[in-house]
Structures are given as C-alpha cells and as structure tokens.
C-alpha cells in the first residue's frame, strides 16, 4: 500500500495519517465492511469504532478509489463468458461472469432462467 502524499490535511484527527490511510485503503481494495476494517485495526492494537471508519471512508475514500483504479492494469480486449448453475434455497440460478484474459472478473449476472443472449 502506498500512502498518498497528496491526501487532504488531517489536522484535528486523533490517529496518524498512516492508520487512516490503511483503514480506507483496505476498505476499498478488498471490498471489506467497516466492521471488518475495525477488526483488522483491532488486531494491530488500534481501537477505533466502525462509525469512525465510515467517516474516514466518506471523507477520504474517493481519493483512494481513484488511486486503486489508476494503478490497476487496464482490462484486456479479449474476454469470455463463464456460466455456472448454482442452487440458492433449493432453486436453480444461472451465474454468468465476464472474465478478461488476465482472469479479472469484469461483470457478474445472476438469472433465474438460462438466457445466454441476455447475459452476453
């Protein structure tokens, strides 16, 4: 994780820039909940509420989301559509995933009926 130097001023915040940056980065990078981020910080000895994490994400999150998207490689031109049948509550659903050549999932669709044309 790179701590951005152009992050907005943190005057008046109780925790240092590195802790706030780590919390917001993990929230966006790994699609965690605020409770999960709270637990990760607690494991490292930083006691913070999930409400505080939510406020940090609301204030600094867009900057981190932009940085992560910018650093991620662009999607490849070649991609394919995966189809999987999954039972949910005893009912069959079709899960479609658009996957690029690097193995990154581009999009996901779940349908009650199999309809490849709509999924494509």
From TrEMBL:
InterPro entries reported in the protein's UniProt record: DDE_dom, IS_Transposase, Transpos_IS6
Keywords assigned by UniProt, alphabetized: DNA recombination, DNA-binding, Transposition
Single GO term (MF): DNA binding
Ranges of residues in domain DDE: 77-119
GO BP terms in the entry: DNA recombination; transposition
Pfam family, one: DDE_Tnp_IS240
Domain of life of the source: Bacteria
Protein name in UniProt: DDE domain-containing protein
């Amino acid at each position: 994780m790179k701590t951005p130097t152009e992050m907005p001023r943190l005057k008046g915040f109780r925790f240092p820039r590195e802790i706030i940056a780590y919390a917001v980065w993990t929230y966006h990078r790994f699609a965690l909940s605020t409770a999960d981020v709270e637990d990760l910080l607690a494991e490292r000895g930083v006691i913070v509420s999930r409400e505080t994490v939510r406020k940090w994400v609301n204030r600094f999150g867009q900057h981190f989301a932009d940085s992560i998207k910018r650093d991620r490689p662009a999607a490849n031109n070649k991609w394919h559509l995966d189809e999987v049948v999954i039972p949910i509550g005893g009912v069959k659903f079709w899960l479609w995933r658009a996957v690029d050549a690097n193995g990154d999932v581009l999009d996901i669709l779940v349908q009650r009926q199999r309809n490849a044309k709509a999924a494509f």
